[in-house]
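Input record, target 12 of the design panel.
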């Protein structure tokens, strides 16, 4: 059922489940979604050429993303199944890119255990992180979400636009504005 060219929540029986997850962290609703979609997502990933163990692992990651990103679901933009399979497709693309470019060099310093940190360095790092968190808290909520998606969740601007339903230019301009505010707040807090 379409309403003005948009998918309505009434047309999608899974939309209320995602809304319950987003609204109150409803585990039962997530369980229903998981039971329905996890095997389908795994089958989809198998058809895309992943081995069974990797497909299972990636299907789990997709469902965790559904749990974490339920608030970004917009029933006016897509059905739940379209949204979930888009997440799965994007995760598969990420795996493909990593696998294609990944070569293991045993002498790579990044594979060595990290050196023990000096306690003073750790205190400074903790203080720096505290200032960053305080500066983030000063941002408007919509800018906080975008900054966290870009830096803590490592999403590209395009992925953020897709998840939030915002235009790519809007995402970029809001992030630019947020960075300016963060810079000023960090200077003030230093």
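The sequence produced for target 12 reads:
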């Amino acid at each position: 059922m379409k309403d003005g060219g948009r998918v309505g929540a009434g047309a999608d029986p899974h939309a209320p489940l995602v809304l319950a997850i987003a609204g109150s962290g409803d585990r039962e609703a997530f369980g229903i979604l998981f039971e329905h979609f996890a095997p389908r997502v795994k089958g989809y990933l198998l058809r895309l050429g992943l081995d069974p163990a990797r497909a299972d692992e990636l299907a789990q990651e997709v469902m965790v993303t559904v749990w974490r990103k339920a608030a970004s679901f917009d029933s006016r933009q897509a059905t739940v199944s379209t949204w979930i399979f888009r997440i799965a497709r994007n995760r598969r693309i990420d795996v493909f890119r990593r696998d294609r470019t990944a070569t293991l060099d045993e002498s790579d310093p990044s594979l060595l255990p990290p050196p023990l940190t000096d306690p003073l360095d750790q205190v400074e790092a903790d203080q720096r992180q505290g200032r960053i968190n305080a500066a983030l808290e000063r941002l408007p909520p919509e800018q906080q979400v975008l900054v966290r998606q870009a830096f803590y969740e490592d999403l590209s601007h395009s992925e953020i636009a897709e998840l939030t339903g915002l235009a790519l230019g809007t995402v970029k301009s809001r992030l630019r504005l947020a960075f300016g505010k963060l810079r000023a707040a960090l200077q003030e807090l230093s």
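The helical segments are 15-24, 27-47, 52-69, 80-101, 119-137, 141-152, 157-164, 168-189.
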